[in-house]
Amino acid sequence: MSSQPTTQPSTQPSTQPTVPDAGGSVVPRTDPPLAADEVTMLRSFITFYRATIRRQCEGLTAEQLRTPLPPSTMTLAGMLKHLAYVEDVWFNVRLAGNEPAPPWDTVDWAADADWDWHSALEDTPEQLTAVFDDAVAASDRILDEVLGETPPDGAGVLDRTTVRPGRSGYISLRWILVHMVEEYSRHAGHADLLREALDGATDL
Predict the structure, then answer these.
(1) pLDDT (tens digit per residue) in 108-153
(2) Buried (b) or exposed (e) across 70-97, using 16+ Cβ within 10 A?
(3) With contact defined as beta carbons under 8 Å apart, do 171 and 94 qualify?
(4) Close Cβ partners of 57 (under 8 Å, ≥ 6 residues apart)
(5) Which of 17, 37, 68, 167 has a Cα at 20 to 30 A from 97?
(6) 3-state helix, strand, coil in the chain (%, to 5)
(7) pTM of the model
(8) What is the C-alpha separation between 82 and 118, in angstroms, rounded?
């Protein structure tokens, strides 16, 4: 399944190709390195799985993106918007301490705790891609800034904790990055099944 990377000895970040790769995708994806420091390794896996999700949604119509695989109500449209929200929560709100970015800043979560999943059914593929890509870019900017700062009290950079606490307290950057790998890889597996059911595509 496409949610499992095939390793290659690269430690460089992904580049943006202008032509399709061997599999026909224009979404760039670089395998995580075989050996690297902890920050590079974690970020490489997050980047890999972000690209995997985008590839699973690449080239689909609005109707296809909104199609669930019963009995689940999960859709690829909802997944893209949900993961954009997850990016904002962990990096922008919790880690950096900012207010939620649009569109999350005006959502009545008490009225619909799954608004990200449900509202995605009204969005176009272009809107879904844009909200996801914008959230990823913002997360990377914040993470670059945080990693470039000197940690307090001589602590390792991954031991730095969030500005805003979660439900159980303040959270280390290490926990956030590991959690993002888990969040993306889990949904990449869901996306494998959804995409194959839609058009038979595999190994994306």
Answers:
(1) 999 999 999 999 999 999 999 999 999 999 999 999 999 988 766 6
(2) eeeebbbbbbbbbbbbbbbbbbbbbbbe
(3) yes
(4) 65, 76, 77, 79, 80, 125, 128, 129, 191, 195
(5) 37
(6) 55, 0, 45
(7) 0.87
(8) 9
* Rounded CA separation 138/188 (Å): 21
Nearest to 202 by CA among 24, 62, 72: 24
User: Measured between alpha carbons, how far is 82 from 71 in angstroms, rounded to an integer?
Assistant: 19
Phi-psi region of 70 (alpha: psi -120 to 50; beta: other; left: phi over 0): beta
What is the distance between the alpha carbons of residues 196 and 87, in angstroms, rounded to a whole number?
A: 26
The helix (run of H) or strand (run of E) holding residue 147 is: helix 125-147
Distant-in-sequence, close-in-space partners of 2: CB < 8 Å, separation ≥ 6: 52, 55, 56, 188, 192, 202, 203, 204
Question: What's the pLDDT tens digit per position in 91-112?
Answer: 999 999 999 999 999 999 999 9
Read off the amino acid at residue 77: A
DSSP 101: P
Q: Token match 């972000």: residue? A: 50
Say if residues 2 and 56 touch (Cβ distance below 8 Å): yes
Let me know how long the chain is.
Answer: 204
